[in-house]
Each structure stands twice: as structure tokens, then as C-alpha cells.
Amino acid sequence: MMKKRSLMIGAVAFAALLALAACGGSGSEQAGQETTSASPTTTSAAAEAHNQADVTFAQHMIPHHQQAIEMSDVVLAKQGIDPRVVELANQIKAAQGPEIEQMQGWLTQWGQPTMPMMPGMEMPGQTGMPGMPGQTGMPGMPGQTGMPGMPDMESPGATPTTTPSQPSPTGMPGPQMPGMPDMPGMAGMMSPEDMAALQNAQGVEAGRLFLTQMIQHHQGAITMAQTEIDSGQSHPAVTLARSIIDTQQKEINTMQGVLATL
Hints:
Layout: H1 2-48, H2 52-76, H3 83-109, H4 192-200, H5 203-231, H6 235-259
């Protein structure tokens, strides 16, 4: 009799343990579900924590950085460049490449294009854009096959316009296209003529020109970054702007020192 009673007590205890285990698992699953459901809210909040100044900063600084990388690639492809200039060019590429990817990620998260709209891109009467029928290119050109103020590349006697700019390492076109003026707000950008001069320079002269141009380019980036600090809302973007000012001011000081000895 005692043996049967002991078996019954053991069975009841085992059943109780199973019930407790089931409750614990259910609680863990519920906690996991709550954590998962909270993630979209967190992501949405992060995406909303920005303003137009942040968008403009990223959209302008991306092509600005891309041109700095392009300038560095030009000088790195040359022979007879001072080792200090080579080191600076590699340093600039290493710093600005990841920053481009970071800013592109923000714009994607914010639902914004990675390039700002150029003047005239939303004018009526153009094909391929909302409310723009009847055209195949930009205004002001016969045949509408190019940008404003550029000759029709298919017209007889037209002279093709070329540029030394190459596609950027990030897959986006260089910020300076033939016949295009500097984009508003992008301080310190090199013109196509500036880029051509760098392409054609050799040896010590190429090193001097690179340093002179990059100092101007960095000063423009510092101006843009300060605007973001003054007007931006996104904490990561403002933090990057502060980093750009710190890093590029140090590089300016270094470049000025090297330039004085070339």
C-alpha cells in the first residue's frame, strides 16, 4: 500500500515539474515575441530623428568625398610623387570611403535619394519624370539628349565634351560632369578644369597641385560640416560632421607643412 502511495506522489510531482517547464518556455517565447515586435518601432524612431539639414549634409558630402577619393586616385597613379603626398592620399581614401557608405545608409533609411535634385530636373515637358512628357533629356538643347547649355552630341559639328573624372569607387558618377556648375552648398569642389590640370601635372608639380587643391577641398568640407553641426538634428550625422572637421583640419595642417617643403 505504501509502495503504491509513493508511486502516486512521484507521478504527481513529475507532472508538476512538466507544467512549470511549459510555463517557463511560454514566457520566454512571449518575451522574444515582444522584443521582435518592438524592433520596427525602434527602427522607425531612428529614421524619424533627422531633418532636412541632415539630408542635405549627406547628399552633398557624398559627392564631395567621392571627388576627394578621385583626386587621390589620380595622384596615386602617377610616378615620382613625394612619399608624404602618397601617404596623405591613401589616408584620405581610407577615411572617406567608409564615411560615404555610412551616409548612403542614412539616406536609404530616411527614404531619400543619395544625390540631391539638380536645378531643372522637375521642369514640365520632360520624359521619364512625373508630368514631363515629350522630352528625352534636359531643357535648352536641340534633341534634348544632354544637360542644359551643352551641345547636342548627335548634332552635326558638335564637339563632344570630355572630363578627366572617372566613376567613383562607390559606383556613383563623379560630382563634376561636363558643363555642370558646382552644386549649391558644396564648397571647395574642383571644376573639370581643375581635375584636368591635376591629371596633366607630373612629378613634384603634381604633388604640389594635389596638396593645394586638397587643402581647398578640405576647407570646403569643414564649412559644410559646420553647417550640419549648427542646423542638423540627427545625432550620428552631427557626430560625423564633428569628426570630419577634426580629421580634415589636421590633414590641412599636415598638407600645408608638406607643401612648404616641396
